[in-house]
Design goal:
The protein has strands at 2-3, 9-15, 26-29, 31-32, 40-43, 50-52, 62-65, 70-77, 82-86, 90-91, 98-102, 113-114, 119-120, 135-136, 142-148, 159-166, 169-177, 184-186, 199-200, 202-205, 210-217, 222-226, 237-241, 258-259, 265-271, 282-289, 298-300, 307-309, 317-320, 325-332, 337-341, 345-346, 353-357, 386-393, 398-405, 413-416, 425-426, 434-437, 442-449, 455-462. It is mainly beta. The protein folds into 4 domains: 2-91, no CATH class; 98-226, Immunoglobulin-like; 237-346, Immunoglobulins (Immunoglobulin-like), CATH 2.60.40; 353-462, Immunoglobulin-like. Strand 8 and strand 9 (82-86) form a beta hairpin.
Length: 463
């Protein structure tokens, strides 16, 4: 946004009656200052007013409907905590339906659907799936009964992760606050980036198979689950990656950090110039909570020294050491900050992109096409934004592939995340590879835009 002489920030956007997440003219927005996710301003108790600071957890995104296509002026006054949209739009505050989305639906599909025009989330996370609907109760609460199991959930261990949404719009969302069972944080949909270490999805563990009733009071940002379930308390943090033994097992004792007197968490790591997964002193790292991935990893947020949490776009921390020695890693969950002392060479942007997969031309890389550190996987770029590589494919074959960055192997990988409802690349965890069913033999161009996340496969020459 651009700041005017009166200290008001302004942005003009073209909005459409057929735009928005669901193509119905409904848009969601919030404001941040200083490019910091923690400096968030959400909707206050009335239109035009904003809430920031600790109380913003119990506030949501600004939802409004556009009835007419055109240019709209959005104004934001951080000092006065006010906002405006001109021409006037219809702000939405009434909840007519309520949904629960996520891994609580054990029997539902986990494959994202693309119809050539729009992408829908995997069935488990699609707020339009009928089985996700709550029933409204006389006291204004919403409830649903679900069959849950001690062997259910994403990893079949009884740990469940979910988000709530209103009016079939995941940006009208509600997540959980770690260590505060029963309390909800507002505005937490898949694209409503959180940033706070204590905010996540609603995560709990079921110890006994049965029917569980989940009740939500959205106006007071509360929920309860009956019979009772176990919650993670958010008391401890861990370091993960090839900087420690058993790299990606957050429950391993070797990952534990020690809490300091000022609320920061520290760990001393012995790192060498020939260490790391690649043996060249390049290391990959992130943070976890209570030794469980269900609470989501905490990673790099675009500016070295800052962290993001609960966001499909967060990266692992990638850096290289210039000398052997002990390095102190410090993490401050309240500020969303980390540091490494002595200083290391950080990788804070994509400098190169590679493609790996079961392609004939890449099969000689020593791992059947899945060795991303081999130079034959490098893609070409003229602007550092859009990368391409041309490969000969065989008609009728099914190809699986992934993108990786900075010749760092699987440390920085980009795949279309299957649950967010968007056809775009995201650096989140280790989702399934992309698939391409080749219609005819020929030369194909694989393209990936590392800024927008757009990707494509185009036939450029018949064999």
């Amino acid at each position: 946004m651009k700041r005017d002489a009166g200290g008001v920030f302004v942005r003009r956007l073209f909005l459409s009656a057929s735009g928005g997440r669901n193509g119905d003219g409904i848009y969601a927005m919030r404001f941040n200052t200083g490019r910091e996710l923690r400096s968030v301003f959400k909707r206050g108790s009335e239109a035009g007013r904003l809430v920031s600071g600790p109380s913003s957890a119990s506030a949501g995104n600004i939802l409004f409907r556009v009835r007419k296509d055109g240019w709209y002026k959005i104004s934001f006054h951080p000092t006065a905590s006010t906002y405006a949209v001109e021409p006037k739009v219809e702000e939405l505050t009434r909840i007519d339906s309520f949904q629960i989305n996520g891994f609580v639906h054990d029997r539902e599909g986990s494959t994202e659907c693309f119809d050539g025009r729009r992408t829908r989330p995997a069935e488990k996370w699609d707020e339009w799936t009928p089985s996700h609907e709550f029933t409204r109760q006389q006291d204004g609460s919403w409830s649903i009964k679900l069959p849950l199991s001690a062997t259910g959930g994403h990893e079949k261990n009884g740990v469940y992760q979910c988000l709530f949404s209103a009016n079939h719009n995941s940006d009208w969302g509600y997540g959980g606050i770690i260590g505060q069972p029963g309390r909800l944080a507002g505005g937490n949909g898949y694209d409503s980036r959180v940033g706070h270490a204590e905010e996540s999805a609603v995560v709990f563990r079921v110890l006994q198979d049965g029917q569980y009733t989940i009740t939500v009071w959205p106006d007071s940002y509360r929920y309860e689950i009956s019979p009772s379930v176990d919650y993670f308390q958010g008391f401890e943090f861990q370091v993960n990656g090839d900087v420690v033994d058993d790299p990606w097992n957050p429950a391993s004792p070797s990952h534990r950090m020690e809490k300091g007197p000022l609320g920061t968490w520290k760990k001393v790591l012995h790192l060498t110039t020939n260490g790391g997964a690649l043996g060249n002193g390049t290391y990959t790292m992130n943070f976890s909570i209570d030794g469980n991935w269900a609470l989501d990893s905490i990673g790099f947020g675009g500016v070295w020294g800052r962290t993001w949490h609960s966001d499909p776009q967060e990266w692992n921390l990638l850096f290289r050491v210039e000398k052997d020695g002990d390095y102190m890693v410090t993490f401050d969950p309240d500020k969303g900050a980390f540091s490494i002392d002595p200083a290391v060479r950080s990788f804070s942007r994509i400098e190169s992109l590679q493609i790996s997969g079961n392609f004939d031309e890449l099969a000689a890389d020593g791992n059947g096409g899945w060795n991303p550190t081999d130079p034959r996987h490098d893609m070409a770029s003229t602007d550092g934004r859009c990368y391409t590589k041309e490969l000969r494919l065989t008609g009728g074959a099914v190809y699986e592939y992934k993108y990786t960055a900075n010749r760092a192997g699987w440390a920085w990988s980009l795949v279309d995340y299957p649950y967010d409802g968007y056809r775009r690349l995201a650096p989140h965890g280790n989702p399934p590879p992309l698939r391409f069913e080749c219609p005819r033999s020929g030369l194909y161009r694989f393209s990936a835009n590392v800024e927008s996340g757009d990707y494509s496969v185009t036939l450029i020459q018949l064999r």
